[in-house]
Write a structure and sequence with these properties.
The protein is mainly beta. Helix content is 14%, strand content 41%. The chain has a seven-stranded mixed sheet. A hairpin with a 2-residue loop joins β34 and β35. α3 packs parallel to α7. The longest helix has 13 residues. The chain is globular and about 85 Å long. The two termini are 24 Å apart.
Length: 677
């Protein structure tokens, strides 16, 4: 039930550490659950509408906003979308290329196909037309008569979409199908297979009177809905900032979702993020742990979240898989097998498959075992496109860029501008026009490398001539050969380097990751460092670890701090001891010289009503699992828990699975239980 969202949002957080519950400060007004404004505890308004002229189109608003936030459609300016305007042929082509993830390819194209005889095309749009022709979306007839500003008929849209998917052959196989529409006789004979397929795939269907209206046109609102459906069925570059998974944790400022083999944390501005459940805009706070969601990220934050059905399954007709080739069959029926995260997938290969190497088009026969590839696969498990992440063999290739990694152990490798290459042990090396050895190469050097059969055989490099660098210490290695990383750049560090921190002479051991430094170099070795001490005065967050043995430490929101044994502690405005602190409490900590000297804590109390599903004893105490409307929560019993049944005190060992009642929780521990009769 979503009627208990505020309570459940809090409980979701508490489950993650079993005994911890997050809280937050509310300007002295007490704790406010995630998703509620600190002022008055009122829920925030829904994120503002993206367009002001779509409110009276409830069937299309969700698709319009989703596609806008994903960067696939745009408005016309002044906050308007013009939902009832007709869609032109050019707009349809552009949308198809965007959804398939091909728009970037069109940007570098500045010319039209040589056989183009159609109406005038603006310079900015020429790349779209040329790429659509190269991809087979437009054909030779289109090159003769294409009119970019002409409204696109519905049957023409069907052809464009099916061709973009690469299903033209399948469409030809269905040209004799009997279409299920009342007006199927109006579908041009050469479009029957395309209309059949686009309806069968659920991308473009008939109206409520079972008419397809093939000669009609689409509005911009209808276009958004159509291409939103297509987008959900296609894996493409357009999905690089979209993630689907179950909610692991929900907070005012972030959401964590469970992907295939990782938990992804995504920052959230709850007053800006657009959230949908079904076709309804809902509050961010209505998302629960365990919900299946689809999240679109824009500029590092969640821009769009859709709460999906609990039994949601992706129904893709075009998928992309990236892995290492482990087997190839290049006989009568071509096939390719790749390994992805210890899983092996085998795909049949279509005739005339598109194979793209880093230096141009190639053939399936040129792919080798061990190649890293991305394979585009259709719904019949057939490989339609293969991208190979290396240069074609038998060609001498020159590359330029910066050395990012250098591995001179075993089989030599070098990484230049994010690309890794085999490196011949006999490679000729020149640095500033002087003959050098491979050992003289350094990370950060600008190089020009020559490859033969994908192996680097010669390198021309420029020496790094830095005298001074400034930035933040990101890594510090004081073992063996000393190294220091400042703003992503690693440097050798002299063991005799002079160190000053806040104008005081210090040792290398006094340096800390996170310090801002100014470093002087001689022959690319750091010989002196001026640093500023990290001066944190106050931190807020959740206690995640507490170590009160030996040298005291406390971890607040993933950051560990020294904790003074004399630290002042206040819990609910009452003086307390360090022993009264608990993991899960939200704290405001003051620091002096990076040591926590005082903590202000507010207890978090709430009640949950439900049924005991399990009682277990652990090393940490007695743990109870409670079922509240199908959602299960786990808490430990407080040592002084008060238990009553029908107004009479009972002992812990009298609790039974199946007991129902009210459970009062404080800081993640049950402190009172009232069992119903």
């Amino acid at each position: 039930m979503r009627a208990k969202r505020i309570l459940v949002s809090l409980l979701v957080i508490s489950m993650i550490m079993s005994i911890g519950v997050s809280s937050a400060f509310a300007g002295g007004n007490g704790w406010t659950p995630p998703g509620l404004r600190k002022k008055g505890g009122m829920p925030p308004g829904l994120a503002k509408k993206l367009f002001k002229d779509v409110d009276n189109l409830p069937w299309a608003v969700k698709a319009i906003e989703n596609m806008k936030l994903k960067g696939l459609i745009k408005g016309i300016g002044n906050g308007k979308f013009a939902p009832r305007d007709q869609v032109t042929k050019l707009e349809t082509i552009i949308m198809a290329l965007r959804v398939m993830g091909w728009e970037d390819e069109s940007i570098s194209i500045k010319h039209l196909p040589k056989d183009y005889k159609g109406k005038n095309i603006s310079d900015w749009a020429k790349g779209y037309i040329t790429l659509a022709y190269e991809k087979g979306i437009l054909d030779d007839v289109d090159m003769m008569y294409f009119d970019p500003s002409e409204p696109a008929k519905r049957y023409e849209v069907a052809k464009i979409v099916i061709k973009a998917l690469g299903y033209e052959e399948e469409a030809e196989d269905h040209m004799d199908e009997e279409l299920p529409f009342e007006d199927s006789s109006l579908v041009p004979s050469g479009a029957i297979g395309y209309v059949y397929l686009i309806n069968d795939l659920g991308i473009m269907t008939g109206d409520n009177q079972n008419r397809f209206d093939p000669m009609g046109t689409l509005t911009r609102a209808e276009m958004a809905v159509l291409f939103s459906r297509l987008d959900k069925k296609v894996d493409s570059e357009a999905d690089k900032d979209e993630f689907t998974g179950k909610v692991y944790r929900i907070d005012d400022d972030y959401i964590k979702i469970i992907l295939e083999k990782e938990i992804k944390k995504i920052d959230v501005d709850e007053d800006e993020v657009v959230v949908y459940e079904g076709n309804d805009r809902v509050y961010y706070e209505e998302i629960e742990k365990g919900d299946m969601v689809r999240v679109t990220i824009e500029e590092g934050k969640a821009a769009y979240i859709e709460i999906l059905d609990s039994d949601y399954e992706e129904n893709k007709i075009i998928r992309k898989y990236t892995g290492e080739v482990i087997n190839l069959d290049k006989d009568d029926e071509d096939s390719i097998a790749i390994e992805i995260k210890e899983m092996v997938l085998v795909f049949k290969v279509i005739d005339d498959i598109d194979v793209e190497f880093k230096n141009g088009e190639g053939q399936f026969d040129e792919i080798n075992k061990g190649d890293k590839v991305t394979i585009t696969v259709d719904s019949k498990n057939r490989a339609r496109e293969i991208e190979v992440y290396r240069y074609r063999k038998s060609e001498d290739v020159e590359i330029e860029g910066e050395i990012e990694e250098l591995d001179l152990v075993g089989v030599y490798h070098i990484t230049i501008d994010d690309e890794e290459y085999r490196l011949s042990k006999e490679t000729d090396v020149e640095i500033d026009d002087r003959n050098k050895d491979l050992d003289d190469l350094e990370i950060g050097m600008e190089v020009k490398a020559k490859l033969e059969d994908n192996v680097v055989v010669s390198i021309e490099a420029e020496d790094i001539d830095k005298e001074e660098v400034e930035g933040e210490i990101e890594e510090l290695d004081l073992v063996g050969v000393y190294h220091i990383t400042i703003d992503d750049e690693e440097y050798r560090l002299s063991k005799e380097a002079d160190v000053e921190i806040d104008d005081r002479n210090k040792d290398l051991d006094d340096l800390e990751v996170g310090m801002e430094v100014k470093a002087k170099l001689e022959d690319n070795v750091v010989v002196s460092i001026e640093a500023e001490d990290i001066d944190k005065e106050e931190v807020e967050g959740e206690i995640e670890e507490l170590d009160l043995v030996g040298v005291y430490h406390i971890t607040i929101d993933d950051e560990e701090y020294r904790l003074s044994k004399e630290a002042d502690v206040e819990i609910d405005d009452r003086n307390k001891d360090l022993d009264d602190l608990e993991v899960g409490m939200e704290v405001k900590a003051k620091l002096e010289d990076n040591i926590v000297v005082s903590l202000e804590v507010e207890n978090v109390e709430f009640e949950i009503e439900g049924e005991i599903k399990e009682i277990s004893e652990t090393e940490s105490g007695i743990k109870i699992t409670i079922d509240d409307d199908g959602q299960e929560y786990e808490y430990f019993l407080d040592e002084d828990v008060d238990i009553e049944e029908d107004g009479e005190d009972i002992d812990v060992d009298e609790l039974e699975v199946g007991d129902e009642g009210d459970f009062k929780v404080e800081n993640g521990r049950i402190i009172k239980i009232d069992i119903d009769d």
